[in-house]
Design brief:
Layout (H helix, E strand, L loop, with lengths): L2 H4 L4 E7 L5 H16 L3 E7 L11 H9 L16 H4 L2 E4 L2 H10 L7 E2 L23 H26 L1
Parallel strand pairs: 1-2, 1-3, 3-4
Helix pairs in contact: 2-6, 3-6
């Protein structure tokens, strides 16, 4: 029996950005809330492709943006993507094209995880090709990331449920 069956989770997913202190922990937190609303149990985690912030909490500006949008910090600490994550997760979801290239470089080409970019679930009409990195921006940039992720998450949850159902 595999890990998913033992824990009665329908699937597992890993959100990935560069440092794991802005976009991917936000996606993790927002996804957990969307899954809970949908009544779906899943393993959700996040990490970065670079080890700049390992062990750090999410950026304080991102935590403030999440709080403004009604999401609570869950104790996340930054970690780096590991090769074995390709075997531990069903889906790996990079936040931009550079992260996607790094994920594909780090995990094995034969890994069980499917690598699917976050942009697949952006709302209809969204002209973005990636979740923008707000790190060097202001509060409005962090709010924009939270909004984009929150608007994208229902489609992601529905699609991934269908891919494993």
């Amino acid at each position: 029996m595999n890990d998913r069956q033992e824990n009665s989770h329908s699937f597992s997913l890993l959100f990935v950005c560069l440092g794991n202190i802005c976009r991917s922990p936000s996606a993790e937190i927002i996804c957990r809330a969307a899954l809970k609303r949908a009544g779906i149990r899943a393993v959700v985690d996040s990490c970065g492709t670079a080890n700049y912030h390992v062990g750090s909490r999410p950026d304080r500006r991102m935590l403030a943006a999440l709080k403004r949008a009604g999401y609570a910090y869950d104790g996340h600490r930054a970690r780096v993507l590991l090769r074995e994550d390709g075997e531990r997760f069903d889906f790996i979801i990079p936040q931009d094209e550079e992260n996607e290239r790094e994920v594909r470089r780090i995990i094995s080409p034969s890994a069980r995880a499917r690598v699917l970019p976050m942009r697949l679930w952006f709302p209809t009409g969204c002209k973005r090709r990636a979740v923008p990195d707000p790190y060097y921006g202001g509060n409005q940039d962090f709010d924009e990331v939270v909004t984009l992720l929150a608007e994208s998450m229902p489609a992601l949850v529905q699609d991934l449920r269908g891919r494993v159902g």
